[in-house]
Amino acid sequence: LPPTDPGDRLAVVAHALDAMGKGRADDAGPPRPVAVLVGPDGDRIELPDELYEVLRHAARQLLGGRGVTISPHDQVLTTQEAADMLGVSRPTLVKLLEDGEIPYSQPGRHRRVKLADLAAYQERAKVRRRSLLREMTRDAEADGLYETGGGFVPTR
């Protein structure tokens, strides 16, 4: 859960992680600095880029007042947990499962959904929404209902 009062320390950490991350993806040129985790006893360990990005993303979300959950992709969810992640009702999720949109297993009476399958569905849905929006925009342009470019037209 997000902290009730993130305070200045979280903001400092989030902004520092963002600032440090700006040059990390560039493999060309001189060696770049690496992130290091220092324990309370002074032990230091270099952080891989993947873990650094997880920390950076988590800090930004917490700073924005949102909760962060870190789960393995092979985690199995109940239908209610899966519905909550998608922001839909449980009956809507069950319809998606029964329509074959999202794979599931049913070891007993209850359906279970893999987190990886849920994430794959979210990605497919996002791609589909973007494609439909582009198609709607093209249709509106063809019908003269939508203009790209041309700049601002004052109405008053």
TrEMBL record:
Q: Coiled coil: which residue ranges?
A: none
Tell me which residues make up the Helix-turn-helix domain: 76-124
Q: Which Pfam families match?
A: HTH_17
InterPro entries xrefs: DNA-bd_dom_put_sf, HTH_17, SinI_DNA-bd
The protein's GO terms of the molecular function aspect are: DNA binding
Query: What protein name does the entry list?
Result: Helix-turn-helix domain-containing protein
The scientific name of the source species is Saccharothrix algeriensis
